[in-house]
Amino acid sequence: MKALLAIAARSALNRRGTLALVVLSIALATALLLSLERLRTDIRSSFSLAVSGTDLVVGARTGPVQLMLYAVFRVGGATNNIRMDSVRAVAEHRAVAWVVPLALGDSHRGHPVLGTTPDYFVRFAYGERQPLVLAQGRAFAGTLDGLYEAVLGAEVAQALGYKLGDRITLTHGLGGASGLGGALAADHADKPFTVVGVLARTGTPVDRTVHISLPAIEALHLDWAGGAPIPGVGIAPELARKFDLEPKQATAALVGLKSRVAVFNVQRFVNAYEGEPLLAVLPGVALDELWTAVGIGEKALLAISGLVALVSLASL
């Protein structure tokens, strides 16, 4: 036995260069396989925990996956908005505890802008029902006095170097998606916002979102019609406060129930709402469906890493 081991040791010594390369390739293949598996697990965990504590997401009637994409992940856009009257009708249902409307459509240097209410910072949760936490400053007031206040996600503040008190201007639509400015980068330059808060990092789409109030969304578009500024019309920021800024539409709404037992009852109520075509989805179910759709790439990465490991073993 000792002789065989000695022969093997001398053989390995004579082929130390080749052997080192083989061992290195196997080690790298194993590290790649384990890293991809860990990455897959982490991504799926953060993906499924992007929103929690919300029982239903309500929007215009479309596919559940599309609704989750634009309402939660800020990807794509809504086919239609929903009337605030409909949002209030859902809020008045006896089983509903709270409703937080969301308005999307504008951006800031490639980051989505979300119009909502101060309740968003109290009601929205992620992960294992973790609440949003302000790392700096405070939430916007949501009043006329605090009309032009903005709260930034952690990624927005870090990437663009913003701090409390900085002034920012928003872009209509996604014209400034490149983040490089240009002709469309200051569509709403006449109504700048002041940064009053920066949220702590969450690992969710909240991090790359600029948050403003719903009345601020209305103020931005007072002198706009059909997605374009009205020629010859310009309403000054201070003058905008004198207009009716009560929001008329929303992109979607987050709904919390008094009891989870009533979730299907409220879902049927929303889906059968006669005022306009609405859709209510359970976030967990829709996220599973969405993960199934994007899981093909995950499987492809695992297959590639498995092939790398197989080739390394074959070389051995």
Task: Set down the secondary structure blueprint.
Layout: H1 2-14, H2 16-48, E1 56-60, H3 64-71, E2 82-83, H4 84-91, E3 96-108, E4 111-116, H5 120-123, E5 125-126, E6 130-131, E7 134-137, E8 149-152, H6 154-160, E9 167-168, E10 193-199, E11 210-213, H7 214-220, E12 224-225, E13 228-229, H8 237-240, E14 249-250, E15 252-257, H9 263-271, E16 278-281, H10 283-315
Parallel strand pairs: 4-11, 8-10
Antiparallel strand pairs: 1-15, 1-16, 2-14, 3-4, 3-15, 5-6, 7-10, 8-11, 9-10, 12-13
Helix pairs in contact: 2-10
Brief write-up:
This protein has 316 residues and is α+β, with helices and mostly antiparallel strands.
User: How large is the share of residues in beta strands?
Assistant: 15-25%
Q: Tell me, rounded to a whole number, the average pLDDT.
A: 87
Low-confidence stretches: 176-185
The number of distinct helices, counting runs of at least 4 residues, comes to 10
Shape: elongated
How far the N terminus sits from the C terminus, by CA atoms, comes to 23 Å
* SSE order: HHEHEHEEHEEEEHEEEHEEHEEHEH
Tally the beta strands.
16
Largest sheet: 10 strands, mixed
Alpha carbon gyration radius: 26 Å
